[in-house]
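Colleagues,

Please find the record for the two-part complex below.
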Amino acid sequence: MAGLELLSDQGYRLDGRKATELRKFQARMGVFAQADGSAYLEQGNTKALAVVYGPHEVRGSRSRIRHDRAVINCQYSMATFSTAERKRRPHGDRKSTEMSLHLKQTFEAAVMTQLYPRSQIDIYVKILQSDGGNYSVCVNAATLAVIDAGIPMRDYVCACTVGFVDETPLADLCYAEEGGGVSSLALALLPRGGQIALLQMDARLHQDHLEALMEAAMTACKGVSKVLDQVVRQHLQEASVPSAE
Amino acid sequence: MLKSKTFVKKTRSGGVMKIVREHYLRDDIWCGSEVCTECKQESTALQRDPCMESNLCSYPHYVIPDTNVVLHQIDVLEDQVIRNVIILQTVLAEVRHRSAPIYKRLKDIVHEKEKNFYTFTNEHHRETFIEREPGESANDRNDRAIRVAATWYSEHLKKSESDTDPLKVVLLTNDQGNKQKAEESGLLVYKCEEYIKSLIGNPELVDRLALSNDDKNDITSSKVLFPEHLPLSRIQAGLKNGTFLQGTFRASRDNYLEATVFVQGEGEESTEVLIQGLQNLNRSVYQDVVAVQLLPRDQWVAPSSVVLQDEGAAKDDNEEEGEEEKELRVSAAEAARKPTGRVVGIIKRNWRPFCGMLNASIIKESTRHLFTPADRRIPRIRIETRQADALAGQRIMVAIDGWPKHSRYPNGHFVRTLGSAGDKETEQQVLLLEHDVPHQAFSQAVLSFLPTMPWEITPEVMVNREDLRSLTVCSVDPPGCTDIDDALHCRELDNGNLEGVHIADVSHFIRPGNAMDKEAANRGTTVYLCGKRIDMVPELLSSNLCSLRSNVERLAFSCIWEINHEAEILKTRFTKSVIKSKASLTYAEAQMRIDDTTQTDDITKNLRGLNKLAKILKKHRILKGALTLSSLEVRFHIDSETHDPIDLQTKELMETNSMVEEFMLLANISVAQKIFDEFPDCAMLRKHPAPPPSNYDILLKAAKSKAVEIHTDSAKALADSLDVARVDGFPYFNTLLRILATRCMMQAVYFCSGMDSDFHHYGLASPIYTHFTSPIRRYADIIVHRLLAVAIAADKTYPDLMDKQKQSALSNNLNYRHKMSQYAQRASVAFHTQLFFKSRGILNEEGFVLFVRKNAIIVLIPKFGLEGTVFFDSKTKAAPTVVFDEEGPSLTVEQHTFHIFDRVIVTISLDASNIQHQKIRMSLIEPVIPGVSVSAPEVAPLAKKPRLDR
């Protein structure tokens, strides 16, 4: 049985996108009143909810206090109903711990933590529906939530997964593409300066291809940042209209 | 960029999983027509005035075939006449799902610019996408999608109407229901046959049409000749509970009513099931995967030794068959009976296009003819053609379409002609096609990876490369060799000798994964036919840039040993290098230099040193138990103008042959050890398994008849006993014995070290072996080069190199190609031998009996290296009394008894009564047996060929 054809000769992918095209983006900021900041983001069929608390005093062990900056605490989880098969996902399993750690590293690089010494910022992200690119959707959602909380950042952190098929890099992979034996790479970028907040890849890829793949990932991240920027501006406009009246 | 914001969820339920996928619809998919002004396309595939003239459609039009038309009539679509076709994405996806080979062919057509095929991505187009309706089957949905797309096209082309005739689209389908619905929605729709037949001026295209199902009724009577094949579900159930066996069908070459099914068992256990009779064979064709059911034990039979060929006119009923089948059922000894079964169903057909010739029907006007394939294991095929007269005497290719149960022969259609039979070019092509040797010219994609000329060594190339240009390197090869892959040098050091073998660095030019690499991996090996070479890599590489020719700088991969005068290796080193060969010699030239004591130049000294060491190496090797086997190889002297063979000569072996061979063996062994140490899981090695003891039966019996004892306990024992086997007054005996021993051996094979544990090479008596020394003509060597380059950190790895599953699959392909190329080579020699005897007329020669069979002896003629069969029964004459003794083995004909190794004199002539299978006929002259032997015919004096004096 022939596997899926990830990229047709005409240059279309399984879902009809071209190689460099992103999935449909839909976002809302400020979805919860209780939290300091929150955002809901859909990238295609992957849907994530991000909530931010803080900055507030450090809770729990006092040894975690940093005197020069704020600590960032991230927690990643997946809803039981997020995949095709319903599955109980206990807290603290290996995969989500790793993902939490990655998110923490990403945001420590982007948030201006030195402005809030001896305090803590909590970022909670939940995947409601999973269809590939979980890490990048989480990062993008969390960025919106941090902005909603009014915490200063160096720049938007934009993330995107890219894969490599038939000598062509594909941007923003969906689940079918991730599972199709593609070596994929996740990149979180601060687009204005072009700094990389996080780069992760655990598949094999020949080093000759790495440059092309990185290039494609950067372009895709810059695309994401444009969309995020639009979302933030629109949200601000909506938020400012009632107060003006 | 415009991206449609509409999006639709597509749900696909397979088993219990529910998969949700996005499906984007776009409005930037263009129609691909030159006429269209609306679409903003950059390049167009469909022409402004499509020039397919048809009776049915006299207006310019594009064609849209549906899935079944593509699947069944791909031969027609491949024709140059058919152009301006729109292939819908729906069709492409369905074809991909249903048949991989046809999908590949379809893609090839689409890529061909002159064919003007356009792929329309209708499933992602906003206006042509449709959702499956409740209650609608997937097939119906796809049919509807095709109709919707066709409708869209006709509307779309109407809009962009220019001053000329409006373009139309024609839908081709063979499905009655689909056609009717299409007509209702106002589409132009035709059946494929109707349309093709209406094309003006292309009558031969009709022949290429495959017969569709509803056509076959008028071909045959309604009489059912074969039992029905079981449906796949029942076969699977039967396989599971053990009532059926699954295996590969192998028709017998000599008897069309007999076949075996090879059932692969667990591990080493595999069995063969015998099948006899047309009913039991049940429409299986050679190489099909079939399900068989064993017959009860009392119906088991023995394989018959009768030769039966399906000849004569077409038979439409089975009355004659009855007799022939009875003939088969000779009572056999209980012991000789084998498991016998019958085919109950076909699991997978393995049909390919077959080469062969047409037997024109006796009725002159008839359009139905039988086609006889060149391969005797393939049944004759019934085809329909109007050009039988033109095709008579031609080699043609035919594809099978199906084998209905009421037809004696499978139905097929004509694909193309190859040329007239007996013609050298044609026969060569037949030979290549029948042995599945890829021989097309290299595609543009492959050639694009060639280095640009003039090529020179740049500083980047010199990174990780040693400069050995100053060494006195030379190459020794057969005469006329242009692909020189190895060169040698030998230099006196202070402590001993420094030895080097230099192999062409092909892997420098062929980078992993590119089109050239893929092509080479598929070809696997260069095939040498008489007077023709089918290259594995393009000629620029094989005969120029990679070939280590003299006096030019070439890249090499060197294996350098430090060897003392006792030929013991002190140190081994591998490196990429640059060399400049000082001379390319032939074996004979090198031999002359060595023997000529007056020559004292560097090259000659080099050669002498090498030769001395090679002799010691050989001695060591033989002491360890390496076999020296013998097989006769012949060389043709080919006329330079007509390319006809003018003389035959067995190949001579010189000391220098074995000199080169010794060093190549040494290099291969050293490299094998190195890559295995470095990559125990994915080294590509070569092994030669020890033959099972039963293989030696013939050899032992034959030797015993001359009171010579042969030991076969180990390779060494065999080698030693072969060495001492001599019979007084029979100098050729030893060679004959070695030829027999060669026939007992197993095939050597490539394998991946991670997948096997037995590495031993029996023939060379080496615990490990690989192929390193001929990367120009063998792909395995390229892989070994890459592995070695990584091992010495001169190159990078790539994923496939380290994947043992992929390596293993690759070695299987290489083994297959290697075997096929050998068969092709043999067939080519046989064909040239025939040409030779055709020009020489009748010859009387001395020969030796090599085997004794039930009704024949097989005679070897050393002078020509030719083997032939002398039959003792014929259809015309009364058969002499023949007594066969299996123990001897000996055959008593009238009063004379033949043993193996007997000397006979035979007359050789060419039997051209069957144009397709011309053969060498031998008949006995001496010993004289009344009624059997023939009197020696006048040997035609060697016709003096008129030679042009120039």
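The mean pLDDT of chain A is 90.

Comments are welcome before we finalize the supplementary table.
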